[in-house]
């Protein structure tokens, strides 16, 4: 019944899209995963970029309300959320200093603790508006995809 997930291009694209939505994994895992499923680099990159970007507007619009609701539920959740906000605040120093370029660089470096999820959280903590944060995050995700593609395929085989 679920054979189409592994046997069809649409299923492989969907898997790549979904893996790229997961925090921490994001497109750093999505692109190599898509390639390992047999997708060409164009399709793997596009699915990973779209999957990585999908949660960003949702995070920017609703994370404050979700955090407020979770804080009311438990002291442990409150402490965990405070810790995440403190980390985002620290990462936000570069964004404060360099503006949109700082946000692009934060998202573009494909290492743990960076990426679209972190960039969106930093944007929220710093009070950036969607129209300012989203373009910077998109550019950062595309740069990260190029870096991951280069590492996955080897730069010479892409260009």
General description of the model:
The chain is mainly α. The chain folds into 2 domains: 49 residues, no CATH class; 96 residues, no CATH class. 82% of the residues lie in helices and 0% in strands. It is built from 10 helices and no strands. The chain is globular and about 45 Å long. The N and C termini lie far apart (39 Å). The model has no long low-confidence stretch (mean pLDDT 91).
Give the strand content. under 5%
Main pleated-sheet profile: none
Helicity level: over 70%
Q: Please tell me the overall pLDDT.
A: 91
Low-pLDDT regions: none
Distance between the termini: 39 Å
Number of separate domains: 2
Question: What topology emerges from the helices and strands here?
Answer:
Elements (H helix, E strand, L loop, with lengths): L3 H4 L1 H13 L4 H11 L4 H13 L1 H19 L1 H24 L1 H9 L7 H10 L4 H24 L1 H4 L1
Give the key terms:
159 residues; mainly alpha; 2 domains
Brief overview:
With 159 residues, the protein is mainly alpha-helical. The chain is built from ten helices and no strands.
């Amino acid at each position: 019944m679920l054979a189409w997930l592994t046997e069809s291009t649409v299923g492989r694209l969907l898997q790549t899209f979904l893996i790229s939505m997961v925090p921490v994994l994001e497109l750093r895992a999505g692109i190599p995963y898509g390639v390992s499923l047999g997708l060409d680099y164009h399709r793997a990159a596009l699915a990973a970029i779209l999957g990585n970007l999908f949660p960003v507007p949702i995070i920017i619009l609703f994370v404050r309300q979700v955090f407020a609701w979770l804080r009311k539920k438990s002291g442990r959740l409150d402490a965990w959320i405070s810790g995440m906000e403190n980390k985002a605040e620290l990462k936000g120093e570069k964004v404060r200093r360099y503006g949109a370029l700082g946000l692009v660089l934060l998202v573009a470096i494909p290492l743990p603790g960076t990426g679209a999820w972190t960039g969106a959280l930093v944007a929220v903590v710093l009070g950036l508006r969607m129209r300012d944060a989203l373009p910077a995050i998109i550019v950062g995700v595309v740069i990260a995809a190029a870096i991951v593609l280069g590492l996955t395929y080897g730069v010479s085989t892409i260009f």
